[in-house]
UniProtKB/TrEMBL annotation, chain A:
Keywords per UniProt: Amino-acid transport, Cell membrane, Membrane, Transmembrane, Transmembrane helix, Transport
Domain of life where this protein originates: Bacteria
PROSITE patterns assigned: ABC_TM1 (PS50928)
Taxonomic classification: Bacteria, Bacillati, Bacillota, Bacilli, Bacillales
ABC transmembrane type-1 domain boundaries: 15-201
Gene Ontology CC terms, in alphabetical order: ATP-binding cassette (ABC) transporter complex
Entry GO MF terms: transmembrane transporter activity
Matches recorded under Gene3D superfamilies: MetI-like
Compartmental location: Cell membrane
Stretches that traverse the bilayer: 20-41, 53-74, 80-100, 180-205
Protein name as annotated: Polar amino acid transport system permease protein
Membrane topology qualifier: Multi-pass membrane protein
From TrEMBL, chain B:
Domain of life the protein comes from: Bacteria
Gene Ontology MF term list: ABC-type amino acid transporter activity; ATP binding; ATP hydrolysis activity
Organism of this sequence: Thalassobacillus cyri
Start and end residues of each ABC transporter domain: 2-234
Segments traversing the membrane: none
Keywords for the protein's UniProt record, in alphabetical order: ATP-binding, Nucleotide-binding, Transport
Keyword Nucleotide-binding set for record: yes
Database matches in Pfam families: ABC_tran
Taxonomic path: Bacteria, Bacillati, Bacillota, Bacilli, Bacillales
Gene3D superfamilies xref list: P-loop containing nucleotide triphosphate hydrolases (3.40.50.300)
InterPro entries, alphabetized: AAA+_ATPase, ABC_ATPase_HisP-typ, ABC_transporter-like_ATP-bd, ABC_transporter-like_CS, MetN_ABC_transporter-like, P-loop_NTPase
Name under which the protein is recorded: Polar amino acid transport system ATP-binding protein
Protein backbone atom coordinates (compact mmCIF):
# COMPACT_ATOMS: atom_id res chain seq x y z
CA UNK A 1 0.00 0.00 0.00
CA UNK A 2 2.82 2.40 0.95
CA UNK A 3 4.31 2.30 -2.54
CA UNK A 4 1.28 4.12 -3.96
CA UNK A 5 1.27 6.89 -1.34
CA UNK A 6 3.23 9.29 -3.59
CA UNK A 7 0.65 8.70 -6.32
CA UNK A 8 -2.34 9.68 -4.21
CA UNK A 9 -2.06 13.44 -4.93
CA UNK A 10 -1.96 12.53 -8.63
CA UNK A 11 -5.25 10.68 -8.31
CA UNK A 12 -6.77 13.41 -6.15
CA UNK A 13 -6.06 15.95 -8.87
CA UNK A 14 -8.62 14.06 -10.92
CA UNK A 15 -11.35 15.44 -8.66
CA UNK A 16 -11.08 18.80 -10.45
CA UNK A 17 -11.39 17.13 -13.85
CA UNK A 18 -14.35 15.03 -12.77
CA UNK A 19 -16.03 18.07 -11.21
CA UNK A 20 -15.56 20.09 -14.39
CA UNK A 21 -17.36 17.42 -16.39
CA UNK A 22 -20.14 17.07 -13.87
CA UNK A 23 -20.77 20.76 -13.27
CA UNK A 24 -20.71 21.87 -16.90
CA UNK A 25 -22.74 18.86 -18.08
CA UNK A 26 -25.10 19.18 -15.12
CA UNK A 27 -25.91 22.80 -15.91
CA UNK A 28 -26.23 22.30 -19.66
CA UNK A 29 -28.22 19.10 -19.17
CA UNK A 30 -30.57 20.90 -16.82
CA UNK A 31 -31.20 23.77 -19.25
CA UNK A 32 -31.79 21.46 -22.20
CA UNK A 33 -33.92 19.25 -19.96
CA UNK A 34 -36.17 22.18 -18.99
CA UNK A 35 -36.70 23.05 -22.64
CA UNK A 36 -37.49 19.43 -23.48
CA UNK A 37 -39.91 19.18 -20.56
CA UNK A 38 -41.74 22.31 -21.71
CA UNK A 39 -41.92 20.86 -25.21
CA UNK A 40 -43.40 17.65 -23.81
CA UNK A 41 -46.02 19.54 -21.83
CA UNK A 42 -46.80 22.08 -24.51
CA UNK A 43 -49.60 22.11 -27.01
CA UNK A 44 -47.58 21.73 -30.21
CA UNK A 45 -47.61 18.08 -31.18
CA UNK A 46 -44.49 18.34 -33.37
CA UNK A 47 -42.26 19.48 -30.52
CA UNK A 48 -43.86 16.88 -28.28
CA UNK A 49 -43.00 14.08 -30.71
CA UNK A 50 -39.44 15.38 -31.16
CA UNK A 51 -38.85 15.70 -27.42
CA UNK A 52 -40.17 12.20 -26.83
CA UNK A 53 -38.00 10.81 -29.62
CA UNK A 54 -34.98 12.58 -28.13
CA UNK A 55 -35.63 11.05 -24.73
CA UNK A 56 -36.18 7.55 -25.99
CA UNK A 57 -33.00 7.73 -28.08
CA UNK A 58 -30.75 8.88 -25.25
CA UNK A 59 -32.31 6.53 -22.74
CA UNK A 60 -32.31 3.68 -25.21
CA UNK A 61 -28.60 3.58 -26.07
CA UNK A 62 -25.55 3.08 -23.80
CA UNK A 63 -23.95 6.24 -22.47
CA UNK A 64 -20.47 4.90 -23.14
CA UNK A 65 -21.37 4.36 -26.78
CA UNK A 66 -22.83 7.88 -27.06
CA UNK A 67 -19.59 9.23 -25.62
CA UNK A 68 -17.31 7.28 -27.92
CA UNK A 69 -19.57 8.13 -30.85
CA UNK A 70 -19.26 11.88 -30.20
CA UNK A 71 -15.50 11.63 -29.65
CA UNK A 72 -14.65 9.61 -32.75
CA UNK A 73 -17.43 10.38 -35.24
CA UNK A 74 -17.33 14.17 -34.99
CA UNK A 75 -13.66 14.42 -36.07
CA UNK A 76 -14.36 11.95 -38.86
CA UNK A 77 -17.31 13.79 -40.40
CA UNK A 78 -16.48 17.40 -39.48
CA UNK A 79 -13.29 19.44 -39.40
CA UNK A 80 -13.63 19.80 -35.62
CA UNK A 81 -10.80 18.01 -33.83
CA UNK A 82 -12.84 17.51 -30.68
CA UNK A 83 -11.17 17.35 -27.28
CA UNK A 84 -12.01 14.69 -24.72
CA UNK A 85 -13.46 17.38 -22.48
CA UNK A 86 -15.80 18.73 -25.17
CA UNK A 87 -16.88 15.24 -26.19
CA UNK A 88 -17.56 14.33 -22.57
CA UNK A 89 -19.58 17.47 -21.94
CA UNK A 90 -21.62 17.02 -25.11
CA UNK A 91 -22.39 13.37 -24.44
CA UNK A 92 -23.13 13.82 -20.75
CA UNK A 93 -25.28 16.92 -21.08
CA UNK A 94 -27.34 15.51 -23.97
CA UNK A 95 -27.77 12.25 -22.09
CA UNK A 96 -28.56 13.89 -18.77
CA UNK A 97 -31.06 16.24 -20.44
CA UNK A 98 -33.17 13.24 -21.43
CA UNK A 99 -33.47 12.12 -17.83
CA UNK A 100 -33.85 15.64 -16.45
CA UNK A 101 -36.69 16.35 -18.87
CA UNK A 102 -38.61 13.33 -17.58
CA UNK A 103 -37.98 14.38 -13.98
CA UNK A 104 -39.23 17.91 -14.64
CA UNK A 105 -42.21 16.76 -16.68
CA UNK A 106 -43.29 14.43 -13.88
CA UNK A 107 -42.70 17.18 -11.29
CA UNK A 108 -44.82 19.69 -13.17
CA UNK A 109 -47.58 17.15 -13.66
CA UNK A 110 -47.53 16.44 -9.94
CA UNK A 111 -48.59 20.03 -9.20
CA UNK A 112 -52.30 20.24 -8.38
CA UNK A 113 -54.37 20.92 -11.49
CA UNK A 114 -56.20 23.58 -9.52
CA UNK A 115 -53.06 25.72 -9.53
CA UNK A 116 -53.18 25.90 -13.31
CA UNK A 117 -56.88 26.74 -13.20
CA UNK A 118 -56.46 29.42 -10.56
CA UNK A 119 -53.71 31.00 -12.65
CA UNK A 120 -55.85 30.82 -15.78
CA UNK A 121 -58.86 32.30 -14.02
CA UNK A 122 -56.64 35.21 -12.95
CA UNK A 123 -55.57 35.59 -16.57
CA UNK A 124 -51.91 34.90 -15.79
CA UNK A 125 -49.99 34.39 -19.06
CA UNK A 126 -48.59 30.88 -19.65
CA UNK A 127 -44.92 31.78 -19.21
CA UNK A 128 -45.52 33.72 -16.00
CA UNK A 129 -47.68 30.91 -14.69
CA UNK A 130 -44.98 28.32 -15.36
CA UNK A 131 -42.12 30.43 -14.01
CA UNK A 132 -43.73 31.96 -10.94
CA UNK A 133 -46.47 29.54 -9.93
CA UNK A 134 -45.96 26.05 -11.27
CA UNK A 135 -42.17 25.57 -11.29
CA UNK A 136 -41.63 26.89 -7.74
CA UNK A 137 -44.09 24.22 -6.56
CA UNK A 138 -42.85 21.50 -8.89
CA UNK A 139 -39.30 21.99 -7.61
CA UNK A 140 -40.27 20.17 -4.43
CA UNK A 141 -41.08 17.05 -6.41
CA UNK A 142 -38.23 17.60 -8.83
CA UNK A 143 -35.39 18.17 -6.42
CA UNK A 144 -35.03 14.69 -4.88
CA UNK A 145 -35.11 13.03 -8.29
CA UNK A 146 -32.74 15.65 -9.67
CA UNK A 147 -30.28 14.94 -6.87
CA UNK A 148 -30.36 11.28 -7.88
CA UNK A 149 -29.64 12.28 -11.45
CA UNK A 150 -26.61 14.33 -10.41
CA UNK A 151 -25.31 11.48 -8.27
CA UNK A 152 -25.65 9.20 -11.27
CA UNK A 153 -23.92 11.78 -13.45
CA UNK A 154 -21.06 12.09 -10.98
CA UNK A 155 -20.50 8.34 -10.89
CA UNK A 156 -21.03 7.72 -14.58
CA UNK A 157 -18.60 10.50 -15.45
CA UNK A 158 -15.98 7.82 -14.83
CA UNK A 159 -16.61 6.53 -18.33
CA UNK A 160 -14.78 9.57 -19.77
CA UNK A 161 -11.66 7.63 -18.85
CA UNK A 162 -12.24 5.54 -21.98
CA UNK A 163 -11.58 8.53 -24.22
CA UNK A 164 -8.52 9.49 -22.22
CA UNK A 165 -9.80 12.37 -20.06
CA UNK A 166 -7.69 12.56 -16.92
CA UNK A 167 -10.42 12.12 -14.35
CA UNK A 168 -10.22 10.22 -11.05
CA UNK A 169 -10.89 6.88 -12.68
CA UNK A 170 -8.31 7.28 -15.43
CA UNK A 171 -5.64 8.43 -13.00
CA UNK A 172 -6.28 5.45 -10.74
CA UNK A 173 -5.90 3.16 -13.73
CA UNK A 174 -2.65 4.85 -14.78
CA UNK A 175 -1.18 4.43 -11.32
CA UNK A 176 -2.33 0.81 -11.28
CA UNK A 177 -0.67 0.14 -14.61
CA UNK A 178 2.55 1.83 -13.53
CA UNK A 179 2.88 0.05 -10.20
CA UNK A 180 1.13 -3.22 -10.98
CA UNK A 181 -0.83 -2.49 -7.81
CA UNK A 182 -4.59 -2.52 -8.31
CA UNK A 183 -5.79 -2.67 -4.73
CA UNK A 184 -4.32 0.68 -3.68
CA UNK A 185 -5.19 3.11 -6.49
CA UNK A 186 -8.60 1.65 -7.22
CA UNK A 187 -9.49 1.74 -3.52
CA UNK A 188 -8.41 5.37 -3.37
CA UNK A 189 -10.68 6.10 -6.35
CA UNK A 190 -13.57 4.29 -4.69
CA UNK A 191 -13.17 6.33 -1.52
CA UNK A 192 -12.98 9.62 -3.45
CA UNK A 193 -16.14 8.91 -5.46
CA UNK A 194 -17.96 7.76 -2.36
CA UNK A 195 -17.07 10.90 -0.39
CA UNK A 196 -18.05 13.14 -3.29
CA UNK A 197 -21.46 11.47 -3.51
CA UNK A 198 -21.92 11.81 0.26
CA UNK A 199 -21.17 15.53 0.09
CA UNK A 200 -23.57 16.00 -2.81
CA UNK A 201 -26.27 14.09 -0.93
CA UNK A 202 -25.72 16.26 2.14
CA UNK A 203 -26.21 19.51 0.23
CA UNK A 204 -29.19 18.03 -1.57
CA UNK A 205 -30.89 17.25 1.72
CA UNK A 206 -30.17 20.79 2.98
CA UNK A 207 -31.69 22.27 -0.14
CA UNK A 208 -34.80 20.12 0.20
CA UNK A 209 -35.23 21.34 3.77
CA UNK A 210 -35.06 24.95 2.68
CA UNK A 211 -37.69 24.34 0.00
CA UNK A 212 -40.25 23.20 2.54
CA UNK A 213 -40.65 26.63 4.16
CA UNK A 214 -44.27 27.07 3.09
CA UNK A 215 -45.54 23.66 4.27
CA UNK B 1 -73.92 40.97 -18.63
CA UNK B 2 -73.85 37.24 -19.40
CA UNK B 3 -75.90 35.66 -22.12
CA UNK B 4 -75.91 31.93 -22.61
CA UNK B 5 -77.50 30.51 -25.73
CA UNK B 6 -78.12 26.82 -26.35
CA UNK B 7 -74.95 25.83 -24.55
CA UNK B 8 -73.85 22.21 -24.96
CA UNK B 9 -70.80 20.68 -23.36
CA UNK B 10 -69.60 17.12 -23.77
CA UNK B 11 -66.58 15.34 -22.40
CA UNK B 12 -65.76 12.59 -24.88
CA UNK B 13 -69.06 10.71 -25.12
CA UNK B 14 -70.68 12.12 -22.01
CA UNK B 15 -73.01 15.04 -22.51
CA UNK B 16 -72.76 17.21 -19.40
CA UNK B 17 -74.66 20.30 -20.50
CA UNK B 18 -77.60 20.12 -22.79
CA UNK B 19 -79.04 23.22 -24.44
CA UNK B 20 -78.67 25.74 -21.64
CA UNK B 21 -79.98 29.23 -22.31
CA UNK B 22 -80.20 31.99 -19.75
CA UNK B 23 -79.34 35.59 -19.16
CA UNK B 24 -77.73 37.22 -16.16
CA UNK B 25 -78.02 40.97 -15.85
CA UNK B 26 -75.60 43.36 -14.23
CA UNK B 27 -75.69 43.31 -10.44
CA UNK B 28 -77.73 40.14 -10.31
CA UNK B 29 -76.91 37.41 -7.81
CA UNK B 30 -77.70 34.01 -9.26
CA UNK B 31 -77.62 30.79 -7.26
CA UNK B 32 -77.11 27.64 -9.30
CA UNK B 33 -78.39 24.59 -7.48
CA UNK B 34 -79.14 21.01 -8.31
CA UNK B 35 -78.11 17.43 -7.56
CA UNK B 36 -74.47 16.46 -7.86
CA UNK B 37 -73.53 15.56 -11.39
CA UNK B 38 -76.16 17.88 -12.79
CA UNK B 39 -73.56 20.02 -14.59
CA UNK B 40 -73.57 23.04 -12.25
CA UNK B 41 -69.82 23.37 -12.02
CA UNK B 42 -69.31 22.76 -15.72
CA UNK B 43 -71.87 25.46 -16.45
CA UNK B 44 -70.00 27.90 -14.22
CA UNK B 45 -66.66 26.98 -15.79
CA UNK B 46 -68.08 27.76 -19.20
CA UNK B 47 -68.71 31.33 -18.07
CA UNK B 48 -65.00 32.19 -17.88
CA UNK B 49 -63.71 29.83 -20.52
CA UNK B 50 -62.17 27.23 -18.22
CA UNK B 51 -64.33 24.99 -20.38
CA UNK B 52 -64.97 25.79 -24.01
CA UNK B 53 -68.54 24.96 -25.13
CA UNK B 54 -69.03 22.05 -27.50
CA UNK B 55 -71.89 23.95 -29.09
CA UNK B 56 -73.85 27.11 -28.43
CA UNK B 57 -72.60 30.44 -27.23
CA UNK B 58 -71.61 32.22 -24.05
CA UNK B 59 -71.36 35.99 -24.24
CA UNK B 60 -69.85 38.07 -21.47
CA UNK B 61 -70.47 41.80 -21.90
CA UNK B 62 -71.37 41.15 -25.54
CA UNK B 63 -68.08 39.30 -26.21
CA UNK B 64 -68.56 35.67 -27.24
CA UNK B 65 -66.17 33.29 -25.49
CA UNK B 66 -63.70 31.57 -27.74
CA UNK B 67 -60.05 30.63 -27.50
CA UNK B 68 -59.23 34.08 -28.85
CA UNK B 69 -61.31 36.11 -26.43
CA UNK B 70 -60.26 34.27 -23.27
CA UNK B 71 -58.06 37.09 -21.98
CA UNK B 72 -60.77 39.64 -22.51
CA UNK B 73 -63.32 37.48 -20.69
CA UNK B 74 -61.07 36.55 -17.80
CA UNK B 75 -60.19 40.16 -17.05
CA UNK B 76 -63.88 40.68 -16.34
CA UNK B 77 -64.47 37.57 -14.28
CA UNK B 78 -63.09 36.43 -10.95
CA UNK B 79 -63.42 32.86 -9.80
CA UNK B 80 -63.50 31.20 -6.40
CA UNK B 81 -62.97 27.43 -6.26
CA UNK B 82 -64.26 24.78 -3.92
CA UNK B 83 -60.71 23.85 -2.94
CA UNK B 84 -59.41 27.44 -2.84
CA UNK B 85 -56.35 26.85 -5.03
CA UNK B 86 -54.33 29.51 -3.27
CA UNK B 87 -50.70 29.62 -4.33
CA UNK B 88 -49.07 27.69 -1.47
CA UNK B 89 -45.55 29.04 -2.02
CA UNK B 90 -46.68 32.66 -1.68
CA UNK B 91 -47.77 34.51 1.44
CA UNK B 92 -51.34 35.74 1.74
CA UNK B 93 -50.48 39.26 0.59
CA UNK B 94 -48.41 37.92 -2.32
CA UNK B 95 -51.35 35.74 -3.34
CA UNK B 96 -53.43 38.90 -3.58
CA UNK B 97 -50.88 41.04 -5.39
CA UNK B 98 -49.60 38.37 -7.79
CA UNK B 99 -52.08 38.88 -10.61
CA UNK B 100 -52.38 42.68 -10.27
CA UNK B 101 -48.59 42.95 -10.53
CA UNK B 102 -47.89 40.25 -13.12
CA UNK B 103 -51.02 40.52 -15.23
CA UNK B 104 -52.09 44.13 -14.96
CA UNK B 105 -48.63 45.56 -14.37
CA UNK B 106 -49.71 47.53 -11.34
CA UNK B 107 -46.95 49.00 -9.21
CA UNK B 108 -46.04 46.81 -6.21
CA UNK B 109 -46.80 49.43 -3.56
CA UNK B 110 -50.15 50.25 -5.03
CA UNK B 111 -51.02 46.57 -5.39
CA UNK B 112 -50.09 46.01 -1.76
CA UNK B 113 -52.16 48.87 -0.42
CA UNK B 114 -55.16 47.62 -2.42
CA UNK B 115 -54.53 44.11 -1.15
CA UNK B 116 -54.42 45.32 2.44
CA UNK B 117 -57.77 47.03 2.00
CA UNK B 118 -59.23 43.80 0.64
CA UNK B 119 -57.76 41.76 3.47
CA UNK B 120 -59.31 44.21 5.88
CA UNK B 121 -62.69 43.77 4.22
CA UNK B 122 -62.53 39.99 4.58
CA UNK B 123 -61.27 40.34 8.14
CA UNK B 124 -57.79 38.93 7.64
CA UNK B 125 -55.42 41.87 7.95
CA UNK B 126 -53.41 40.03 10.59
CA UNK B 127 -52.71 37.12 8.23
CA UNK B 128 -51.00 39.03 5.45
CA UNK B 129 -47.59 37.43 6.06
CA UNK B 130 -48.89 33.89 6.63
CA UNK B 131 -48.58 31.05 4.15
CA UNK B 132 -51.88 29.50 3.00
CA UNK B 133 -51.10 26.14 4.59
CA UNK B 134 -51.15 27.80 7.99
CA UNK B 135 -54.71 29.07 7.57
CA UNK B 136 -58.02 27.39 8.34
CA UNK B 137 -60.32 26.45 5.49
CA UNK B 138 -62.57 29.43 6.09
CA UNK B 139 -59.62 31.78 6.14
CA UNK B 140 -58.25 30.26 2.95
CA UNK B 141 -61.53 30.77 1.17
CA UNK B 142 -61.77 34.39 2.32
CA UNK B 143 -58.25 34.96 1.01
CA UNK B 144 -59.28 33.32 -2.26
CA UNK B 145 -62.24 35.69 -2.56
CA UNK B 146 -59.98 38.66 -1.86
CA UNK B 147 -57.48 37.38 -4.43
CA UNK B 148 -60.18 37.27 -7.10
CA UNK B 149 -61.45 40.71 -6.12
CA UNK B 150 -57.95 42.15 -6.36
CA UNK B 151 -58.29 41.98 -10.15
CA UNK B 152 -61.40 44.20 -9.91
CA UNK B 153 -63.68 41.84 -11.85
CA UNK B 154 -67.17 42.80 -12.96
CA UNK B 155 -68.48 39.29 -12.37
CA UNK B 156 -67.63 36.87 -9.58
CA UNK B 157 -68.06 33.14 -10.10
CA UNK B 158 -68.22 30.87 -7.06
CA UNK B 159 -67.87 27.12 -7.49
CA UNK B 160 -69.25 25.52 -4.32
CA UNK B 161 -67.23 27.89 -2.15
CA UNK B 162 -68.28 26.34 1.16
CA UNK B 163 -68.48 22.66 0.23
CA UNK B 164 -64.96 21.83 1.39
CA UNK B 165 -65.27 23.68 4.69
CA UNK B 166 -65.90 22.43 8.18
CA UNK B 167 -69.43 23.42 9.21
CA UNK B 168 -68.31 26.06 11.71
CA UNK B 169 -66.44 27.92 8.96
CA UNK B 170 -69.22 28.14 6.44
CA UNK B 171 -70.75 31.24 7.96
CA UNK B 172 -67.64 33.40 7.83
CA UNK B 173 -67.33 32.75 4.11
CA UNK B 174 -71.02 33.29 3.41
CA UNK B 175 -70.85 36.54 5.38
CA UNK B 176 -68.09 37.81 3.12
CA UNK B 177 -70.15 36.84 0.09
CA UNK B 178 -73.23 38.55 1.46
CA UNK B 179 -71.22 41.69 2.00
CA UNK B 180 -70.14 41.47 -1.60
CA UNK B 181 -73.73 41.37 -2.84
CA UNK B 182 -74.27 44.78 -1.26
CA UNK B 183 -71.60 46.27 -3.53
CA UNK B 184 -73.68 45.51 -6.62
CA UNK B 185 -71.32 42.81 -7.84
CA UNK B 186 -72.73 40.42 -10.41
CA UNK B 187 -72.40 36.98 -8.86
CA UNK B 188 -73.00 33.44 -10.02
CA UNK B 189 -72.83 31.00 -7.14
CA UNK B 190 -72.95 27.23 -7.43
CA UNK B 191 -73.97 26.17 -3.97
CA UNK B 192 -75.57 23.63 -1.71
CA UNK B 193 -76.33 26.30 0.90
CA UNK B 194 -80.08 26.60 0.45
CA UNK B 195 -80.36 29.17 3.21
CA UNK B 196 -77.87 31.40 1.47
CA UNK B 197 -79.53 30.95 -1.91
CA UNK B 198 -82.92 31.79 -0.50
CA UNK B 199 -81.76 34.82 1.41
CA UNK B 200 -79.28 36.39 -0.97
CA UNK B 201 -79.99 35.30 -4.52
CA UNK B 202 -82.07 37.33 -6.95
CA UNK B 203 -82.63 34.27 -9.07
CA UNK B 204 -82.35 30.50 -8.76
CA UNK B 205 -81.21 28.29 -11.60
CA UNK B 206 -82.11 24.70 -10.88
CA UNK B 207 -80.09 22.29 -13.00
CA UNK B 208 -80.63 18.59 -13.48
CA UNK B 209 -79.04 16.29 -16.05
CA UNK B 210 -77.36 19.21 -17.75
CA UNK B 211 -80.45 21.31 -18.36
CA UNK B 212 -82.07 24.21 -16.59
CA UNK B 213 -85.19 22.60 -15.18
CA UNK B 214 -86.41 25.66 -13.37
CA UNK B 215 -85.47 29.32 -13.35
CA UNK B 216 -87.28 31.27 -10.66
CA UNK B 217 -87.24 33.83 -7.90
CA UNK B 218 -86.01 32.30 -4.65
CA UNK B 219 -89.24 33.07 -2.82
CA UNK B 220 -91.20 31.21 -5.43
CA UNK B 221 -88.70 28.40 -5.95
CA UNK B 222 -88.42 27.50 -2.30
CA UNK B 223 -92.11 27.76 -1.47
CA UNK B 224 -93.75 26.52 -4.65
CA UNK B 225 -91.35 24.81 -7.04
CA UNK B 226 -93.09 24.12 -10.31
CA UNK B 227 -91.40 20.97 -11.47
CA UNK B 228 -91.50 17.57 -9.87
CA UNK B 229 -87.75 17.28 -10.02
CA UNK B 230 -87.24 20.50 -8.09
CA UNK B 231 -89.85 19.45 -5.55
CA UNK B 232 -88.12 16.13 -5.14
CA UNK B 233 -84.70 17.78 -4.77
CA UNK B 234 -85.89 20.31 -2.20
CA UNK B 235 -87.63 17.58 -0.30
CA UNK B 236 -84.30 15.78 0.03
CA UNK B 237 -82.11 18.73 0.98
CA UNK B 238 -84.36 20.82 3.19
Amino acid sequence: MSDILPSIPFIIKGIGVTLQFVIVSGILGFLIGVLLALAKLGKKSISKVLADAYTSFFRGTPLILQLVYVYFVIPQVTPWDITAFAAGVIAFSLNSAAYVSEIIRAGIQAVDKGQFEAAKALNVPYRTMMRKIILPQAIKYILPALMNEYITLLKESAVVSVIGAMDIMRRAQIVSADTFNYLGPLTVALVIYFLMVRILTFFGAKLEQRMSFSD
Amino acid sequence: MIKVTKLDKSFKDTKVLNGISTEIVKGEVVAVIGPSGSGKSTFLRCLNGLEIPTAGEVKVSEVPISNKSLNEIRVKTGMVFQHFHLFPHLTVIDNLTFAPIHVKGIDKHEAESQALELLESVGLSDKKGAYPNHLSGGQKQRVAIARALAMKPEIMLFDEPTSALDPEMVKEVLDVMKKLTHTGMTMVVVTHEMGFAREVADKILFLDHGSIVEEALPSKFFSKPETLRAQDFLHKVL
